[in-house]
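Task: complex structure prediction.
Instruction: return structure tokens for all chains below.
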Amino acid sequence: MSFRDHIVSCNNYDPGRVVPLFAGEDRVGLLRRDNAAALRRFPDVFAVADDRVSLVERGDVAAVSRAVDAVVDALVVEKRIPKSRNETFDVAPRWGAPVLFRLDRGAVPFFGTRAYGVHLNGYLWKAGTLHLWVGRRAPDKRVAPGKLDNLVAGGIGNGHGLEETLLKEGEEEASLAQSLTSHAVPAGAVSYRMENELGIRDDVLFVFDLEIPADFIPKNQDGEIVHFELMPASAVLDRVRTSEDFKFNVNLVILDFALRHGLLRPDHPEYLDVATGLHRPLD
Amino acid sequence: MSFRDHIVSCNNYDPGRVVPLFAGEDRVGLLRRDNAAALRRFPDVFAVADDRVSLVERGDVAAVSRAVDAVVDALVVEKRIPKSRNETFDVAPRWGAPVLFRLDRGAVPFFGTRAYGVHLNGYLWKAGTLHLWVGRRAPDKRVAPGKLDNLVAGGIGNGHGLEETLLKEGEEEASLAQSLTSHAVPAGAVSYRMENELGIRDDVLFVFDLEIPADFIPKNQDGEIVHFELMPASAVLDRVRTSEDFKFNVNLVILDFALRHGLLRPDHPEYLDVATGLHRPLD
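Output:
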């Protein structure tokens, strides 16, 4: 592995394998061709052409969401979409734009709608050395079981704002008091586009840095993390470079942290690959 | 103006107006079609085809540089290239790759070879508020006369390493002791591709942050900056948003600083435009 390999594998998206999903004039998703073909059975909701799929159903958010949900239920039966998680994500043409419909989280990669998450780097200085808190994901997680993770990370579900998600996940995942998490500094966003076995992940991760008090020990409350470890940041970066121990997208968040804090320096041969590879344009 | 406008104007590159310059198998430059046509007079050095220009001259760095220099001298006479600055930039296929030839700085946009610079954000906390040192460029600068600038900025000339350039420019531009500048933290790189009246700027700016002691007053030594001012960082960011007071590329460096330090927050409607727009991929 190299730093660049992690960036490449999170950006293995191939436009030739995909058709866009349109709602009116706006592209709102990216359907792998096999997934697009599976929507032909639902002409009341989706119009499937060779080069695009269009949302036919019109109406308010609730009406469109109900129609799409019925399609999702049928695709779950066909095992094209994993069983519903009972958590929905907003679908909109752009961050901050009016919501068009809500989609079960499990169906997001099938439709390739953009998903947003928050990732928190929990860091502290110890004996003059920068350290990062690292979590180990539970073995029963659907995505990346047993892999290493940031101190806190979570998707931004429908109805939960970004800061609210960060505060809530901080409590659930690491027992961080909201009064502490509220000091987290927003430090940018990592973006990538990746094909997986279900479809396309078109992801934006809002990145936060939080200095953790020396006497604080994170404790997981929701069963998603089995163990936390405080590691020297340079050792974390080495592990990113030499292994696939971290969840695929967490590698990118750590590379972004390393770049911003001078752990990775300009004389590193991959410096510009990292500096330019973490922020895929949002088209 | 908006934040996005600055990013767009630094990335006004239109591939349709340009042909690549190749050295062997490697693309090393981007020639606007009128500039490419002007090279037809020099078939011993450049082979000009409709869809590409190739460097014909072979030999070691000194030999190729001499041949290209002779062409540059002729183009200076024709006023296609401004008068030589007597400072040369290395030309290579990639950062860190072996140098193919050296090119007068004034000729870099004509050939569209990639140029590298260092920009230093000089910051401090004053009365609990983040401040930035801002310079005013001299009225006789060829590029962006009279515009506002970072505390220190400079191109990486031939034979000077990146850190060496930073230390040297810090002394010349702001009287920063090398012992202070050596604490600057590398924090990534900003990249953009821009057409100007001379040709194409294909630029990479290595970004550094340096905390400046409260009692330090920068003093210019090389005549490139006429005045320094310490401004609240939020006021600097406002000025970026509402004006063209800063040199075109300095707007991007300040946006990058604002993003990394939480001055620009995720609820800002342009947050993701900034997060994804500052790091043009290096192809």
